[in-house]
Amino acid sequence: MVAEELNARVPKAVFFTKGVGKHKYRPQSLELAMRHAGVEKYNLVQVSGILPSKCKIITIHEGIRRLAPGQIVYGAISESSTDEPNRLLCAGIGVAMPIKDQYGYIAEHHGYGMTEERIGDFVEDMAATMLATTLGIEFDPARNYDERKEIYRMSGATVRTRNIAQTAEGDKNGLWTTVIAAAVFIL
User: What's the predicted TM-score (pTM) here?
Assistant: First the structure.
């Protein structure tokens, strides 16, 4: 492949979104969660979590404006579903970006029982930890995330982090409930 073709496949922008859906069938609850997140019109392909060095973070509105219905779209996606009444669902995406011109990391996690704040901190910590290890920053993983943030800052390898998280309680009448969070790439 020619270098131009390879560069055409490197995402130039990314947007973050989240959603919740409820329905008597699980696939439809996922469709409704995707609709709530604004990404139901696209063919989403799950990718691992590398944020290219010059990938610009844009708003969901700007991202959707650049996409066409039916388009194949790549993204890091977190999704969780249940039909158990009142069960707390969570899905989150965390991002860690170095200030320098280097790639960053996207981490995703989904599960049960975590509040939106807790899942957000968790995925942000996962992404920052992955990035820190590539930057050669040593730290004690047993320390809490706030202490490690200070270690990152003091190392001189300034790291910016952010997250998007979605939680919901399972429908009280047993409908399928689905939550999603996604980092959607624009080529």
Answer: 0.89
